TrEMBL record:
Residues 1-105 form the 2Fe-2S ferredoxin-type domain. It comes from Dyadobacter psychrotolerans. The keyword Iron applies. One of its GO terms (molecular function) is metal ion binding. This is (2Fe-2S)-binding protein.
Length: 107
């Protein structure tokens, strides 16, 4: 189990306990914690509705693959700290990761 801090677009933070042994990607974890992520493409890295900004711990994440980079390139607000949560599988080395959600559904 690791801890990941999630900041929403309104600036509120929540510390999540994230299992690393059940095979979920970060987008699925966020949805399990009831964050309003559309996940239109089902985690294929094509829609960018799970766009996050990595505020701390980026050095512990795996490199972006070409598909993720191509999708991020379509976003006007993407920068070097942008990632797609569906492309990240939480691992023990990610304890203390801090992310900010970028594209939450309008409710």
């Amino acid at each position: 189990m690791i801890n990941i801090t999630v900041k929403d677009p309104d600036g509120h933070s929540q510390l999540l306990d994230v299992p690393t042994d059940i095979g979920l990607n970060l987008m699925e974890v966020l949805k399990a914690y009831e964050y309003d992520i559309l996940a239109t493409c089902g985690g294929m890295g094509l829609c960018a509705t799970c766009h996050i900004e990595v505020l701390r711990g980026a050095e512990n994440l795996p490199e972006c693959n070409d598909n993720e980079l191509d999708t991020l390139d379509t976003l006007p607000d993407a920068d070097v700290n942008s990632r797609l949560a569906c492309q990240i599988r939480p691992g023990e080395n990610m304890d203390g990761l801090v992310i900010k959600l970028k594209n939450l559904q309008e409710t």
